[in-house]
Write a structure and sequence with these properties.
Layout (H helix, E strand, L loop, with lengths): L1 H15 L11 E6 L2 E6 L2 E5 L14 E7 L4 E8 L8 E4 L5 E6 L4 E5 L5 E10 L2 E12 L7 E14 L1
Parallel strand pairs: 3-11
Antiparallel strand pairs: 1-2, 1-11, 3-4, 4-5, 5-7, 6-9, 7-8, 8-10, 9-10, 10-11
Length: about 160
Amino acid sequence: MRPILTIVCVALLLSACEKEQHEEVRKFISCQMDSIFFIGENPKAVITRADLTDTDPNNDIDKLTITASGEKAEKLNITLIGSSEGLDHGVFYSQDGNKFSVHYDKNNITQLADQTYGFFSLSIRNVKDSLIEASFYGTAVDTSGTFVPKPITHGFLRAIVTTN
């Protein structure tokens, strides 16, 4: 009985000492514009901190720029301007200076939502270490007039934020 108990204790000890497996978190950005789905893997999210040491008023606020490329050479860009609460939580609207755009290289057309065209809203849902998760929606407008305004739905992003 004693050898069996020893074997069971050793087996339990070895199973408890197994290395933890850390599953890689998928980083992506996705949304639907009309019937077209955009999916970009491993988007870049770069934060540029405010520089209050110079005389340039254009860099006096934090800015987060998120970029991704889609499967058909389209390029998605989101620019968020920091608020008094920073860039780590909250809701960001296009009328506050934030911007969403998708550029289609093949047609040289850009769908845009900013202070002038369309509407865009992004809600930061979770920030853990440098991983950010957010959802977004809105309406993007083609400034050339080729496309009708397109609704942006089911928007989600998960990215690692780096500093500039």
